[in-house]
Amino acid sequence: MTSQEARESLSNSFGGKIQRETEFRGETSFTIAASDLHEIAKFCRDELSFDYLLDITSIDNFGEDPRFEIVYHLYSMPHGVHLRLKLRVPEELGAVDTISDIWPTANWHEREAYDMMGIKFNGHLDLRRILMWDGYPYFPLRKDFPLEGLPSEMPDVAFTKVTPMEGGPFVTVPSSAGSKDREPRAHPPEL
Amino acid sequence: MSEKRATAYDSKIEGNMIFTRFDAALNWVRKNSLWPMPMGLACCAIELMATAASRFDIARFGAEVMRFSPRQCDVMIVAGTVTYKMALAVKRIYEQMPEPKWVIAMGACASTGGMYRSYATLQGIDQLIPVDVYISGCPPRPEALLAGLMKLQEKISRHQSFRDQKPKLTEKLEEMLAS
User: Could you tell me the CA-to-CA distances from A124 to A68, B106, B114 in Å, in that order?
Assistant: First the structure.
């Protein structure tokens, strides 16, 4: 199976459900609806032999609706073919189904997406935080979360403070000024 | 026969008697047998391991006995990035160490948070526990850690333990000596 064949097979089976198809350097991305994910993912594994889920990434398009975008990176071990599935999900609870019953590795990937972005997956058996501690009140990779953090306190578990931001090379503005003036430090997003 | 200078310690009269200050003897014992608690949290721990290995040989300074139980340690070497998730665990381990105890903040992250200016990183372990020696570097070379250890030894040798722990007794003794 080549990338071309996988594409045609998906188009034939789910023609109406594929919203957009892009090709970049021989790798294909399909944009689909969140409600079709489980069905298409199962087809990809069982019929197209995409036996390996490389990664799940999520993007916060702050200010747009639906807010989040999730990208599933699939790989076929026997054929050496990559495939991406993209979908947009809103902030509300249970917008997208888990695929941890299809690829067990999705369990921890989805926990990370939940921990960092606050995306909640339907049917996940163990949707706890994976990096931050249980009870941490924020989702730190959201665009409206400041880089310097927000203060929080859980007695005997953990705490966070706001990090002083002066003196760090976080934002570089192109100019002929010296590096001290060219890097006027991180700033909180304008809400 | 050549004239011999009087010294505090002479191997010829070993087993007899030497005179010294109590603090000097105590500090000498303490500073040459610092058992480290290797609090290796990030890449600095690799340099800490190199320091303990044969090329740099931290045993030359009497600090080769890495103990993984805080109850047997004298100096905590905080080697690496202290995240907020780990911060209270580091503090708890420090509190389990018996007195007297010292802390070395090894590297930029343990000293100030280093390059991690973010929501997840404690900006220096000195916000939670008292630090005796800060070592710059990212990560510091083993020589730098040894230099930091020697600085700590200097600090310990200046310590007036007896005077600090028994101020009234010291005063009384000095009065007796004076009269």
Answer: 18, 41, 37
Considering only the beta carbons, identify the residue of B87, B117, B127 that sits closest to A168: B117
Q: Best interface-test mutation with B: which of A157, A161, A185, A187 has the largest number of B CBs within 10 A?
A: A161
One domain for residues A91 and A173 = no
Same domain? A136 vs A150: no
Distance CA B130, CA B42 (A): 20
Phi, psi at B133, each rounded to 5°:
-130, 130
Residues A112 and A164 in one domain: no
**B117/A163 CB distance under 8 A:** yes
Residue range B25-47: mean pLDDT, rounded: 93
> What is the pairing mode between strands A152-154 and A158-160?
antiparallel
Q: In whole angstroms, how far apart are CA A105 and each of A60, A86, B92, B162?
A: 22, 18, 34, 60
Alpha helices by DSSP H, A94-155 = 106-117
| Min distance B124 CA to chain A CA atoms (Å) | 11
The ipTM, to two decimals, is: 0.74
> How many domains does one find in chain A?
2
- Confidence (pLDDT) at B154: 94
Tell me the nearest-neighbour CA distance from B176 into chain A, angstroms: 50
pTM: 0.79
Preferred mutation among B95, B109, B117, B121 to probe A, highest tally of A CBs within 10 A: B117
Q: Give the residue, A115 or A165, on which the prediction is more confident.
A: A115
Domain that holds residue A8: 3-141
